[in-house]
Design brief:
Elements (H helix, E strand, L loop, with lengths): L1 E5 L2 E6 L6 E8 L2 E5 L7 H11 L3 E5 L5 H4 L2 H7 L4 E5 H7 L28 E3 L4 E2 L2 E5 L8 E5 L4 E5 L2 E2 L5 E2 L9 H4 L4 H12 L5 E4 L5 E2 L2 H17 L5
Parallel strand pairs: 4-5, 5-6, 6-7, 11-14
Antiparallel strand pairs: 1-2, 2-3, 3-4, 8-9, 9-10, 10-11, 12-13, 14-15
Helix pairs in contact: 6-7
Length: about 240
């Protein structure tokens, strides 16, 4: 995996030049918070990176329950049973393989690789505004119903999951880019994803750290441009005012 060091965090990237899948080690006083767990065959590399950096993984925080974000979860949890696992209350159902929709949710089908055999169950169910060490949990539904982003309030690092991706340019997850179509193909609800993208841009992050693609410093203008592009596409399809 490629290792990219930042201020108080490390981005780990599998297949950076082909199909980049990112997860993040965020430094806390007691060790690392691992944000997302990549693919099943990434467990050894993630654990090795933490070991080389000299701190243990103390907790795992999941942005959402798609296979490419939870793949190594069971193996990393098994490496140390004291690691706590956090996910939104809503996406805890997806983590257990339940694709059903709740009353009041848009009845668009849940897409993407929903886990079928993950054994790990979360220790903590997150709500909007919860704190995990230095990370603020921000509800960012759209890609999945219970997607979350995490803002490091020390540095302005925004770990956005798949609310945005930066592969081939900054893009709202629901906006189809044929150069990298996978996030859009796996998005549950475009209207919700656009609203969440606006909410995240309002936070004015210093660094955008997406689930797919490179880190982007000073990302707000690019995020706003991506939102405007997605909004215009939405309007052209006759689904906006």
């Amino acid at each position: 995996m490629r290792i990219t060091k930042g201020n108080g965090f490390v981005q780990l990237t599998y297949l950076p030049n082909l199909f980049p899948v990112n997860c993040y080690l965020v430094e806390e006083d007691d060790g690392f918070t691992l944000v997302d767990a990549a693919l099943p065959n990434n467990a050894k590399a993630i654990l090795h990176a933490a070991d080389q950096l000299g701190k243990p993984i103390k907790r795992i925080v999941l942005t959402h329950a798609h296979d490419d974000h939870v793949g190594a979860l069971d193996a990393i949890k098994a490496s140390n049973g004291t690691i706590d696992v956090y996910i939104s209350e809503r996406d805890s159902r997806l983590l257990a393989g339940d694709r059903s929709l709740a009353a009041g949710e848009p009845q668009t089908p849940i897409r993407g690789g929903v886990p079928k055999a993950v054994k790990t169950r979360p220790d903590v169910l997150l709500q909007d505004g919860d704190k995990i060490g230095s990370l603020l949990a921000i509800a960012a539904g759209g890609h999945t119903p219970g997607s979350m982003a995490f803002l490091d309030e020390r540095t302005g690092l925004l770990i956005a999951g798949d609310a945005f991706h930066t592969r081939g340019g900054v893009t709202v997850t629901s906006r189809m880019r044929w150069s990298f179509p996978f996030p859009a193909l796996a998005t549950w609800n475009a209207e919700a994803s656009l609203a969440s993208a606006k909410r995240l841009a309002d936070r004015k992050p210093a660094i955008l750290a997406a689930g797919h693609g490179n880190l982007l410093e000073h990302p707000v203008d690019a995020m706003l441009a991506a939102i405007a592009d997605a909004e215009q596409t939405w309007i052209r399809k006759g689904k906006g005012a």
